[in-house]
Amino acid sequence: MATEKRYYELDSLRGVAAMTVVFHHFLFILPSISDNEKAFWYFKYTPLHLFWAAHEAVIFFFLLSGFVLSLQFFGKKVHYSGFFIKRICRIYIPYLAAVTVAVICSQLFYSGHKPTLSIWFNSVWTEKPTLPLIANHLAFITDFHNGAFDPVLWSLVHEMRISLLFPLIIFLVIRFNWKTNVFLACLFSMAGMVLHYIAKFKFHYQADFFMTIHYIAMFIFGALLAKHRVELVQKYQSFSQRGRYSLVLFAIPLYLFGWIFQRTILPSNLGWFPDWIISAGVAVFIISAIGSDRINRVLLWPPIHFLGKTSYSVYLFHAIILFCLVHSLYATVPIIGIWMIGLVLTILISTASFKYVELPSIAAGRILSDISKKF
Predict the structure, then answer these.
(1) Residue range 354-369, pLDDT digits in tens
(2) Is 351 part of a structural domain of the chain?
(3) Cβ neighbours of 177 (radius 10 Å)
(4) pTM of the predicted model, to two decimals?
(5) Distance between CA atoms of residues 342 and 22, nearest Å
């Protein structure tokens, strides 16, 4: 089994995926994009959706996390308390900074309902920061209205919950072969779906804990890719150049399955099954990124790689910035101008957050992890 290695190109992939989430939310303030399924169909139900595929990007994040987190467990003993401490510091401290900014901004900039903007846009910042809501945001992994102030936080709740369960996940991945693990991943996913529908339709209770069970599957898929990365890369590199390009092109409709096929051809009520298909597309992208020198060079181009390094802050802050700008400028500045200002501010603020919040959080996690190993 190969030893741990840092794949910097995967940071860049995360950055590219984060930017598609940014574009998605910038576009989703428009009713023609968010509320009218038939409008701009060529932009929604064709490969153009690749440039603003938000849910798909979250599945990408989950597989990347499963891949990267698992590397440290292959071939050496891991101190579990140290793993938990580093993971909590890495996710929770920047999250807490973003929540604080989001709550303050919601009180300073909210200017009321905007009837010409989307239902999605008008559903955010409408809730007061009550003590129970703030307490739930601080607790982080409870079942609460996590999109009240920053609509991207829902995925981080699942990420944190699954991170706390990750040693069990990696035990399964190491202990069993890939077929058994794929079966277990599908079993987790289906269990989550079944429990969700029972709770929703029988008990009228919607708990996103069941979604967490489903998303465990994506972490297993990512860890499996890491476990078998050497063989998979060798197989990928055995293809001709045309074969590699064809494989990547084939992965695009898999990645966009939920939009191009589920929303146009197949029954819409497929539960979370499309996430399995999306995961297959993501798997091809990951193996192509670490197996192709050409793709690797593109991903390690400094601007793209820097975007990858700051991707967590980009993800955390872009929606907050967008909402501040719209509530402040919508009456006087065209939407395209708000988008341009928002993009620049997202890059600048994310860079500052990376330097002054993320890096110190990572350093704190390492220090506390080293201390925990002494006990």
Answers:
(1) 999 999 999 999 999 9
(2) yes
(3) 11
(4) 0.95
(5) 10
